[in-house]
Write a structure and sequence with these properties.
There is one protein chain. The chain has 105 residues and is mainly α. The protein is flat and about 110 Å long. Helices cover 50% and strands 0% of the residues.
């Protein structure tokens, strides 16, 4: 039950044909292509963006919002860890006092 079963290689079925023989061909030179005509340089594909006071204000506002959200998440995580640690400390004190009360009796 726990021994692995190795697959067996199946025997080939049908007829096997040998690969076809490829004969080399000769390369004959053709007429040379005319040289490409010089073209004018293309204009820049992307124009330069000029930030306006409105877009700068929007970027500053967006960045401030991101910083505030990330800060709130990190502070809430820190608060959750602190509350958990405090509750574990209180539980440890209660258990210790119960164990000490058992030994005194």
């Amino acid at each position: 039950m726990f021994r692995p079963k190795l697959p067996t290689m199946p025997l080939p079925t049908g007829t096997v044909t040998p690969p076809a023989v490829v004969e080399p061909t000769t390369i004959t030179p053709g007429t040379p292509a005319p040289p490409p005509a010089p073209t004018a340089p293309a204009p820049p594909s992307r124009p330069v963006v000029q930030p306006t006071p409105g877009t700068a204000l929007a970027l500053v506002g967006g960045g401030t919002a991101v910083v505030l959200v990330v800060g709130a998440v990190l502070v809430s995580m820190l608060l959750a860890v602190a509350v958990t640690a405090a509750s574990l400390a209180i539980c440890a004190l209660v258990i210790r006092s119960l164990v000490n009360a058992q030994h005194r009796r």
